[in-house]
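pasting input
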Amino acid sequence: MTTILAADDSVSIREMVQFTLESAGYQVQCAEDGAKALALARERKFDVVISDVNMPNLDGIGLTKALRDLPDYQFTPILILTTESSPEMKSEGKAAGATGWIVKPFNPDTLLKTLGKVI
Amino acid sequence: MDRFRQIFLEECSENLAVLEADLLLMEQGKADEEVINRVFRAAHSIKGGAGTFGLSAMSQFTHLLETLLDELRSGKRRAAPALAALMLKATDVISQMRDDAQAGGPGQSEAAARVKAELAALLALEAQPAETAFEAIAGEGPWHLSFKPHEGILASGNEPLRLLRELKTLGFAVTATETGRLFEPDFDPQSCYLSWTLDGPAAVPEEEIREIFSWVEDECDIELQRQATEAKPQEQAAAEGQARQGQLEQSIRIDIRKIDQLINLVGELVITQSMLAALEGEGGEIQERLDRGLSLLKSNTKALQESVLGIRMLPISFAFNRFPRLVRDLAQQLGKEVELKLVGQQTELDKTVLERISDPLVHMVRNALDHGIESPAKRRQQGKAASGTLTLAARHEGGNVVIDIQDDGAGLDKGRIWEKACEKQLPLIQGRRREDFSDAQLFDLIFAPGFSTAATVSDLSGRGVGMDVVKRNILALGGSVEIQSQPGRGTLFRIRLPLTMAILDGQLVAVGEELFVIPLINIVESLKLEPDCLQKAGGGVVFYQLRQQTLPVLWLSELLGTKGEEGSMPLLCVVEAAGRKLGLVVDALLAQQQVVIKSLEQNFRRLPGISGATILGDGKVCLILDIPGLVARHVGRESDADAASAA
């Protein structure tokens, strides 16, 4: 069973991501900010991480950098939720070590399709 | 999605409260970095959620606010009170949009447009570059791709194998693999040393290939080029480009329920229009202006209705497409040679009708191959070509679609049909002689329940249905089927179907106080009822002598339990279904009009002799008569005279 860690400060997006992924047969844990996500990642190894960029207490970029410093997460796919209108955000994400991005606004289909590229 | 949308709307309220409180602080000049970040995050959350949950107006609007806040955050702008005031206005607009979304309202207002313009002016938005049109390039050969990942690619969580897998789905194949420094002594197990060259089909658009590498642009070297082919002449390339553009037809998937709702609304509009039509022609100047407006409304309503119904229309090729394979397999199985011709593939009909006619068509095609077309040896004996021909032809005729299924085989064997009907003791032939049946009526027996022995489940259509089920399906769609056949020359099954099940052309008739609709398609003629031509027969059946034919007659007033008008001059409306005629006695013929069919089963319950209901211009509900049903019930036993005339 593929395990996914999803970090987003918006409760509706969190609920939707969790529901969509669980319906597709993944095991999902959610965190409402980067710091909580990092704490969860230290406790156990997730197969994939999906993270929003703008979050309080450690944003998505900071979370990605911190994860890449953990031995367990050197090669783990990390997908950043970002808006298409910001290429600099993408390059910032790449520089931090992100695998790729899910472009907002996304729907359940595009989420699963993008996830399919790394699993 | 709706559930999450609800959660989003609640969350949106919370974010709006944050916006409001912090923007007030900003207006008073008390905004530090912390506050600005908080405001930005709130706006960003609203924008992202609105986009995700289908509130595009809100998403676009909030995007402007977010852009402004981003400029504040990066120090491009100063947090001036005036700016905060404008952003507070914007917050009010978003709040209004949120309430509209909650109530299912439009979510667009003048205030929104005004504030949007102010924000846009402040940001001095640049125009988006226009989309470039798709252009064909002369001489496009197959792709040649060289893919060299950098050694550190794995550290970003990307895996070349996944990329290769994606390329494979586009039709790419690896032609060479380079091992690079893989076997050097200082090799590092966490690095990637492999690189590949691949070839792929010319038809794949470049951006689809680039898309695959979009995440690893900086972590690998990609060389993508087309292999040289002979350059085509410009004209041909342009033509191909156009053809391809034709294939890239713009389309959108829409939930069928939405379309049905639209059709319903247009139906209501048609009713409203006919309600207003009753105001026509009183005279006077105002009346003239009203009449002009009404005739315009009428033509617009009709055009709107046609285009809305057009949304549900699909070409019959959707049903025909399965036949080439089916006929080929079945012909091999039966040891026959058959050539299939498909005519009129672009003929459009309603999606529902199309779906429901597919299985009956399969069954009839099987029958034509099974019983119609002879073996090659037998065909040669009779001086025919060894290979038989089966033609499926569709066309529009009036408001109907006509589908012909024609074979050039043996034709129907009347003697065999009669034998089989006797063998099966069909109720239809009880107490009647073979001579009582015209050819058409004999052929019709194959549709009788219990005639065909579909004991074998067909491996092609998925279920063994008899011809009676085929006919029932066609009647249920408001259609008809007739047979023409000549021994040795072949058989033609002709199916007529309504274009759509939502609307029909009807004749309004009055029976006493009540009004009914008779589908125009079933009416042969209407005439004054001459009492001298009525003849009573046994079993309470009454016949009418109409020129050379004798028809059974039904008094609608009796049938439907309404009171006929006393002392009126009744009319006889002659209707026909499945090749059999019936006279209906009514008190008056009124207007002919298009009526919107409302299902009785959904709104009330099923009634015998009634196929549905409609609402007239004055708001009255009016029942639509089920002519095929009535004919099937009341015309079982024609007289000899009728049989002679129908032959």
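fyi The mean pLDDT of chain A is 89.
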